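look at this stuff:

>
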Amino acid sequence: MQVPRCQISLLFCLLSCASSFGTRYTPDWTSLDSRPLPEWYDEVKFGIFVHWGVFSVPAFGSEWFWWYWKVALKPEYILFMVKNYPPGFSYTDFAPDFHAQFFDPDEWADIFEASGAKYVVLTSKHHEGFTNWGSQTSWNWNSVDNGPHRDLVGDLGAAIRKRSLHYGLYHSLYEWFNPIYLSDKQSGFKTQEFVEKKAMPELYDLVNRYKPDLIWSDGDWEAPDTYWNSTGFLAWLYNDSPVKDVVVTNDRWGLGCYCKHGGYYNCADKFTPGQLPNHKWEKCQSVDTISWGYRRNMKLSELMDLPSIIKDMVYVVALGGNYLLNVGPTADGMIAPVFEERLRGIGAWLKVNGEAIYSTKPWRVQAENATVPVWYTSKSSTVYAILTSNPMQNSFKLLTPKTSHNTVVNIYQFIQI
């Protein structure tokens, strides 16, 4: 009996889908690196990074305040403490002042949505070890038992998802001064007590509780991935977790892994390749060029201006990357007006020019120096030529595109510096 054509098509689809979603990944890099990157990540192009924690209380110098004060012994940090705090004041004494009383997650989400960003990545825990949710393995060093007395991860996540944005979580594997980690380090990482009791339980908890679309791992560089049990966690994440089909991960899973293993590549902070990479990548960049966390002593000259941010984003997207732009909120939960102004400015530009950014692919030529510098992106049969400076003349010539009588040229908006 002949099977109807429509039934054959349906059967083929079902078999294809079963093959696609039935892949099981084993806990080794050969298998894990073969996992296709979920499509949503390459399509969104632009995201917001948020560094927020106890370091937002001193708000001086850098989010590495504790390390620079107690280990690097930088004079300006020591002097800051001598001038402003009593003898015997410890870093943990900052936590009660991380009160976040003005934190309105819907207001933040409105700003992020207005920026044109399609995903948001919040620090769930930085290297200081303070968790922005009620981690059961953090004792009282967390935002529910201390400081804000709120689940910051959950509250922001709910607001972000109401606006159909993707929600990601930054998580530091290591903690500078955790005694269990320091004990493992002293053993040459031959013991894994910190991994078994702290790092991995928190990662599993974050995934099961908040179901993030993205995990931005960090703090991996002192120990190999075998110490962190990274491949075991990623195999569970890709095979059995509640986000197994959508979750995206970066490349910071152990000493030597970055720019080599994982989902997309961050490589170094503010990574800027000179040519088109052969793997999906992301540039994380901070509006404040000195610090990722909020600084009360920042100067306007130390901040990226709007044209510089847009140029940077265009460069990244033309070379196939995503652009993750960081802002650091204050300890009381405010996004500084100067940061908000930058974000809303990007959104205004994307409202006009977003077609040349979202869901695009690198073209066969990514840039040329014609009359003025030009960056190219593409989408199907459309090529976008992006000029980030005014040509200062009525006509200019693009050297690379080859036109025909069917070619249609549309002109959008210039960004005048």
User: Anything to note?
Assistant: Confidence is low (pLDDT under 50) at residues 1-20. The chain has two domains: 23-356, 360-417. The domain at 23-356 is CATH 3.20.20.80 (TIM Barrel). The first helix runs from residue 5 to 21.
